[in-house]
Design brief:
With 246 residues, the protein is an alpha/beta fold. It has seven helices and eleven strands. The protein folds into two domains: 178 residues, 3-Layer(aba) Sandwich (Rossmann fold); 60 residues.
Length: 246
């Protein structure tokens, strides 16, 4: 995964404002509520798990993220949630989780085949026999990257009143499904903008299914949006619910 500006403590403090709660969070929270143990891969500031615990989730909740600054935010006031620094290479869990989730299109940051295979193998190993893995990727047929242009500026107000302007610009691709882009975060009180470089892989359903099958997983359900509507060429998302192959 590429280096990201949210590794910076000052910007990580604004992450929840930059990524407000939405329909995708509601979708995943509904699944978490009914799962006895949950692994959130790429948990960020832990919004999902913190909300689940605040609602009274009684089971094991574990968040995994490679950015230490994000976990600083996650750990505040949540001593009964396990926060692990790293990625799926960092922790080896065996048949411990009834549900694993990967939200915020984090799965698309797995650009290389070997990274996808390693992640899915680790997820399969971590799931109980009846466990589920739920994640989403952007539908490549919807070509979301064509809207990532510098003139589309999104402004948010952080918890301290700071106004931050966010813009994106594609730098290369799509090539073999990979799109490279920059994310720029600017504020009038900062000495300079924070710029992150990233790359995302846009996989077709056929490609996803091959990777899942190789890891011993198969698709239980698939949706094109958070309202559980069927997947069509115009759908913005490919939402996958996978289980262990019998």
């Amino acid at each position: 995964m590429a280096a990201h500006p949210f590794n910076d403590l000052s910007l990580a403090a604004h992450y929840d404002a930059l990524n407000p709660w939405g329909p995708g969070d509601d979708f995943h929270l509904g699944l978490i509520r009914t799962a006895r143990s949950v692994l959130d891969i790429g948990c960020g500031t832990g919004q999902l798990l913190r909300r689940a615990r605040a609602e009274g989730h009684p089971g094991r909740l574990t968040g995994l993220d490679p950015a230490a600054a994000m976990l600083v935010q996650a750990r505040r006031g949540t001593p009964d949630i396990e926060w692990v620094l790293g990625d799926t290479r960092s922790g080896r869990w065996k048949r411990e989780f009834a549900l694993a989730v990967m939200t915020g299109h984090a799965f698309q940051q797995l650009v290389r085949d070997e990274d996808i295979r390693q992640c899915l193998d680790a997820v399969r190993e971590a799931l109980t026999e009846d466990g589920r893995f739920v994640f989403e990727t952007r539908n490549p047929e919807a070509r979301a990257w064509e809207r990532w242009t510098p003139d589309r500026v999104h402004t948010i107000t952080g918890p301290d009143g700071t106004e931050i302007r966010v813009s994106h610009e594609v730098t290369h691709g799509p090539a073999n499904g990979v799109v490279g882009f920059t994310e720029t975060y600017a504020c009038d009180t900062w000495p300079a903008p924070a710029v992150g470089r990233n790359a995302l892989r846009f996989l077709t359903t056929a490609e996803l299914d091959r990777f899942l099958a190789d890891a011993g997983l198969h698709v239980l359900a698939r949706h094109g949006d958070w309202d559980r509507s069927p997947l069509t060429p115009a759908s913005p998302e490919i939402i996958t619910v996978a289980v262990a192959a019998s």
